[in-house]
Amino acid sequence: MSSQGLELALTVSPRMVSTVRRFVDLVAEQMGVGADISRRVALTVHELFENVAKYGQQRRGVLRLDVETEGRQHKLLVTVKNYTSRSQVDRLQQVFQAMETGPDALTYYFTLLRRQDQSGLGLARIRAEGEMQLSLAVSGEEVSICATSEPFSPSEEIQR
Length: 160
Fold this sequence. Notes:
By secondary structure, this protein is of the alpha+beta class. The protein is built from six helices and five strands; from the N terminus they run E-H-H-E-E-H-H-H-E-E-H. A hairpin with a 2-residue loop joins strand 2 (60-70) and strand 3.
């Protein structure tokens, strides 16, 4: 198994989110990720860094982008870590619980779109539109969200 990656620590303002998204899209392409996966990564980074800008302590976050290779299969991993308040940690855990026990990703996303309280909408969007699997790790007030693509073969991805 081999791995290549990028790590970026930033203080994120809401206006920077789109710039970081475009940068990560270019980096993903340079890492050999095809256009479809690259688009998913850009959407994922946008949503996760928007959350850092809104809820992160001092708007600080660390982004890690990895392409893991095992044989001919590749997976893209996007991990964002940041510190937040205990109440936000609790809310985030509730959102993940609702996503895990709720309907399929697309149905859950459309359900949130119809609600007035759209808490968790960005995470639901990552699952539905980005077709990424999400996981959450919490240590005190540090949260780490990892989004993982489905396995892909670079030759298949490039042909899309």
